[in-house]
Specification:
alpha/beta, Glucose Oxidase, domain 1, Rossmann fold, eight-stranded mixed beta sheet, globular
């Protein structure tokens, strides 16, 4: 592909408005749900987080790309390196206020522009990102398409998934588990207990946190036969899309509950645990997307700052007998965590691994890694 530098680029929104800027990254068209993040740091972690699959990410902070990106680590084989949340960019596209062409940091392996280009991901620089954030916050379900001048192809999201040629791609309208989950199990680390992770688009930060607890971690594909797994406890990972469009996962989790396997759900895993327990989920009007979402621990009355990216929520009034709220969002009162009175099953909507973001709730993963059977 030819160089993307100084090529004009257009952002078309599903509400009919359009913006013009300069292309960064690959000269490809791409479509997805338009979301934002207020994070000041952690942009490599953000766009490699599988939870952003099918989403075009608007960065409200102006200094994005100023410290470059880490060297590419290659496939996951051991303890995941810090600075990235998967082995490639998962976002459909990136929107910046300004591009930093010459990053200054000793850890930089490449500029953001060069990295996106190599990964086949388009982006736009030179837009009023705070205006875009306002539009996202005032428009229900806003989608976008990146269209560079003289495009050389289309962003490939995954096998059998089209990023939206002629339409706007909605990640919530598809079962996108095959595009973000592993194809085969992988075993990481050694320790006194074995924790199985159901990969629904797992962040490497979750794996790093579990391995720091000195346990063995085995990561399984989303459609694996979970009943055949011998482990001390399960982590249901984060991931993208609508929890109601995840194939047979909910039924698999119901069978884990039936045999009383200890479970900790995170983000999408929280929503799927709730569905397996008989609760309901719904699409939020705006979603929670930032590094500093305040939550309240209902058990202790303590507050914490958390990192979040989700557009669906568990309906608090749909909880079945035996299930209680664990955390609530301080801003809007929505449900942010579940706990079962048996002590076997808990979940959180936010990211306790906090990569990148606050680590106020890192104790949740630490306790589960120490002893899944008696964590709570």
């Amino acid at each position: 592909m030819a160089s993307s530098r100084r090529r004009a680029c257009r952002l078309q929104l599903s509400d009919g408005t359009a913006f013009s800027g300069t292309l960064i990254g690959a000269p490809l068209t791409s479509s997805g749900e338009l979301v934002f993040t207020t994070a000041m740091v952690g942009y490599p972690e953000t766009i490699t987080d599988p939870s952003y699959f099918g989403q075009i990410v608007v960065f409200s902070y102006p200094l994005i790309g100023n410290y470059g990106v880490p060297p590419h680590p290659g496939p996951l084989v051991g303890v995941p390196l810090r600075g990235l949340e998967s082995d490639r960019v998962r976002a459909a596209g990136v929107i910046l206020g300004a591009d930093t062409s010459s990053p200054e940091h000793w850890t930089a392996g490449a500029s953001l522009d060069a990295w996106l280009h190599a990964q086949g991901v388009p982006g736009i620089a030179g837009l009023d990102c705070r205006l875009l954030v306002q539009k996202i916050r005032s428009t229900r379900r806003l989608f976008a398409r990146i269209s560079p001048q003289d495009p050389e192809g289309e962003r490939k999201l995954g096998t059998g998934i089209n990023s939206g040629r002629g339409t706007f791609f909605d990640p919530g309208a598809h079962n996108i588990m095959p595009a973000v989950s592993r194809g085969a199990p992988i075993r990481l680390g050694k320790g006194r207990c074995r924790i199985a992770v159901l990969d629904l688009g797992v962040k490497w930060g979750i794996l790093r946190s579990l391995l720091a607890g000195k346990c063995e971690v085995v990561v399984y594909p989303w459609d694996y036969n979970l009943e055949s797994v011998d482990c001390d406890g399960w982590v249901l990972s984060n991931g993208p899309g609508d929890p109601l469009k995840t194939g047979s996962v909910v039924n698999s989790i119901r069978r884990l509950i039936a045999v009383r396997a200890p479970i900790l759900g995170i983000c999408l895993g929280h929503q799927l645990l709730a569905l397996a327990a008989g609760a309901r989920t719904q699409r939020m009007r705006y979603g929670h997307r930032s590094h500093n979402q305040p939550v309240l621990d209902v058990e202790t009355g303590r507050g914490a700052m958390t990192s979040q990216n989700h557009g669906y929520v568990v309906e608090a009034d749909s909880l079945t007998p035996g299930w209680d709220s664990w955390f609530i969002n301080v801003n809007d009162g929505t449900l942010e965590g579940l706990r079962h009175r048996s002590g076997s099953w808990r979940s959180v909507q936010f990211h306790p691994e906090g990569s990148a973001g606050p680590r106020d709730t890192s104790w949740i993963l630490a306790r589960f890694a120490r002893d899944p059977q008696r964590a709570w």
